[in-house]
Amino acid sequence: MKTVTFTAPVNIAVVKYWGKRDDKLILPLNSSLSATLDQDVMCAKTTVACSKEFKESSLWLNGKREDINSTRIQNVIKTIKKLALEKNPSNEIISWNVEIRSCNNFPTAAGLASSAAGFACLVSALANLYEIEGDLSEIARQGSGSACRSVLGGWVAWDKGTNSKDSIARQIADENHWPDMRVLIIVVNAGHKSTTSTGGMARSVETSRLLELRAKEIVPDMMRKMEKAILQKNFDEFAELTMRDSNQLHAICLDTYPPISYMNDTSRFIQYVVHSINDFHQTNKVAYTFDAGPNACLYLLEENAQLVTSLLCKSFQIGAEVFRGNEIPKLNENIDS
Ligand code: PMV
Where would I find the Mvd1 C-terminal domain in this sequence (predicted)? Predict the structure, then answer.
């Protein structure tokens, strides 16, 4: 029996991937860019074991048995085993059954990049089990598109590329580049999202003209500007681009037919509070971004963390008063007191 355990972090996109041009290879319609979070914050932990004694292969996710024959899991396992065979045809463990046990230390399938961390982790663990070296982002991508960005740390671009070999992740700056950058995750709803990102993307590709425009006309320019803002550590610009890109993703979801709503009233309240804080200070102190779910990811600098968290808490207290039907205090008059 051979066993390995790996952890892999989530990544939060600031230029979102939405839409596939090839469903099988998972080639995206547009390039995307994200930050990979620290391992110890939100991560997947996967143990892969293989043994001659195992009667069958099995997959366990957060303690519950899942279907190991799902296309994506099989794509990943087959690709890695093929590479392992090419490297060492006499490696007998390749023919043994595998047991995969994975768990996340954060809500799964709630639009918090659990599949990115999960597949990046699975690919790293399998590659280690079968002693494969080299770039794993092409393989991780075939499990879940965004997973290809989680195999690298720091700020990572996924170039849409022209084929499977060059549609891979590229680190634009390492994890030490912007040390005072922080991400605040607000879990609005930890439940599973109603429309999966795969289902949502497929429907958008079929029905949204805006998506076509975004992929062709908007994202290439956005990628250039975002990369520059990150390299120059220009938070004000970075924040505006991040929020605009998130809003565009959700505009496309509404342009999809029938429409998809991932954000809920609480998400929109957070969006409103963020803009109120930024307007009040006449500069961007914080940026929101929402994936395929209602949960908010806020990017902010360490120096503003206390200000932003206390204003958010206060805003939620005010929001609760409003909900109870009490008189509405004006947000801007209250947020700094
Ligand atoms: O990797 P997937 O299929 O779960 O797609 C995720 C897409 C978004 O999270 C919405 C955006 C992104 O780029 O991470």
Answer: 183-337
